[in-house]
Amino acid sequence: MRRAWLLVVGWAALGMAGPVLLQMGPKSLALDFPSAIWPIWQGSLAFGGGERRAQGLPLAPIVRALGGMSEADVFFVFAPTGEVLARLGWEEVASAALVFFVEGESAVEAPLVWLPDQSSAFPVRWLVLNWQGERLPEVGVWPERASLTLATPAGERTFSLAELETTFVALTYPGTYTRSSGERVTSFWTGIPLWDLLGNWPADAEIEVVAADGYRMRYRYGSLQDGEGLWLLAFKQDGKYLPFNPGYFRLVKAGPGNPSFTAAASARMVVRLEVRGPYQPYSLRLVGAREQVFSRWDLETGIACPCRARTVFATHRGETRAYTGLPLWRLLAYVDDEVAPQGPGIRFDDAAFNRVLAQAGYIVEIRAADGFFQVIPSTFLAGEDRFILALKVDGRFLSEAEGGPLLFVWDDGVSAPPGLKRVKGVTEILIQPKG
After folding, report:
1. DSSP-assigned letters across all residues of 141-207
2. Phi and psi for 356 in degrees, rounded to 5?
């Protein structure tokens, strides 16, 4: 006769028992009760010396939804202490249920696994398919302040971290990010693909990411999934929930092939995702002794790191505002001679800037898309971080009406040539000989 094991998880009204984490390869889901997305199981079981009515979730449909299991697969059942309590094959899983409520029990101190052919009950926290000795991840440690708002043209919805982990299937994959110092950090990230969170949008739609400190970053929707990996809204790093900084949510790139990404492209402390469209590409062309073109991605990830972004306070038409962008002289280092900063994206390298040429003097022409331009001698720019190409104003990206996507502006306190005007919609920077 086939042996059926019933997984019984006692549920406390105040959530004392906590969830069970179902892990199947890279996919995971925290199972809690009540559930708005899974069918409800109802039945009776022997509990506390008598027969009790119970409610919970049937295990089989959840396992099938996450990819199913073969006859050779085995689920390992773990106690909260991490010890293996039981092993379940498909026949056991097909008739098992996760039970979160037992009639007459107002609270149970810990989840339990109950085996019909035994008289004992055991606490349980993890169900892991084909466990190979890897460390068990944290589950159910949900800070109350951890929440995410999704905003689309159709409306807004805010999820707690608990709702996200129990509603969406998370993926765990490796990903390596490179810090501004050049150090490479490899971690296993657990998170939800942004495509799953936001749904089906055109590839050129724009996603704006808002952090808890007000920082904003934009992504092209089509860039969130490619052959190298997926962009995930991660909430765990190496199996542990992210702290407030750099979490509770962080955008990372991960996948089976351990893709690489720059730390500057990895938005941290994410609290809001806004869908806008369509995504409008732009670029900046620099021409001098050589030519360099920076894409929108280069420019916007360039100011993601505080080590590169600079903020100036500039007054225009009687209003003083904070503008954040990239110092112009540091970009000139790419084209003032044949020596340029090395590495992907935008990098600052003081040694690559030719100070001798700048002090001897040349003219920098700043051109806009509509043909308007301004010129400024190199002697005003050399070593001066307060002349910038701004991408943001007061912490948000510039609109076209405000001079975006790139606005040439400078701090009120810096010495500037008489009559110099700001340039909206900058597209080109040219170095020309003096005279």
Report:
1. ---TT-EEEEEETTEEEEEEHHHHHHHS-EEEEEEEEE-TTS-EEEEEEEEEEHHHHH----TT-EE
2. -60, -45
Contact 269, 246 (CB under 8 A): yes
> Which letter does DSSP use for residue 225 in this model?
B
- The C-alpha atoms of residue 408 and residue 368 are separated, in whole angstroms, by 9
Rg (CA), the chain: 28
Residues in the chain where the model's pLDDT stays below 50? 1-16, 107, 118-120
Output the pLDDT for position 405. Answer: 95
Which DSSP helix (H) or strand (E) runs through 93? helix 90-94
pLDDT of residue 115: 53
CATH 3.90.420.10 positions along the chain are: 7-129, 147-276, 283-433
Token digits for 36? 């708005």
- pLDDT of the residue at 56: 80
Fold for 7-129, please state it: Sulfite Oxidase; Chain A, domain 2 (3.90.420)
Give the single-character DSSP code of 38: S
Measured from the Cβ of residue 315, the count of other Cβ atoms closer than 10 Å reads 10
Instruction: Give, in words, the CATH class of 147-276.
Output: alpha beta
Residue 353 corresponds to which tokens in the numbers above?
């800037």
SS3 call for 73: coil
Question: Strand 155-160 vs strand 147-152: parallel, antiparallel, or unpaired?
Answer: antiparallel
Smallest CA-to-CA distance from 329 within 357, 291, 371, 290 is with 357
Beta-bridge partners for 148: 159
C-alpha–C-alpha distance, residues 267 and 33, integer Å: 32
Domain 283-433, second-level architecture: Alpha-Beta Complex (3.90)
Rounded CA separation 173/193 (Å)? 11
What is the C-alpha to C-alpha distance for residues 246 and 398, in angstroms, rounded to an integer? 26
- pLDDT at residue 47, as a whole number: 65
3-class SS shares of the chain: helix, strand, coil, % to 5: 15, 40, 45
User: 207 pairs with which residues across the strands?
Assistant: 219, 275
Phi, psi of 372 (to 5 degrees): -65, 145
> Cβ(229)–Cβ(249) under 8 Å?
no
State the sign of the Cα–Cα–Cα–Cα dihedral 395, 397, 401, 404.
Answer: positive
Rounded-to-integer distance, Cα 210 and Cα 402, Å: 20
- Is the pTM higher than 0.85? no
Q: Fill in the DSSP letter of residue 224.
A: G
Joined tokens for residue 152 = 């689309």
Cis peptide before 248 (omega within 30 of 0): yes
Phi-psi region of 274 (alpha: psi -120 to 50; beta: other; left: phi over 0): beta
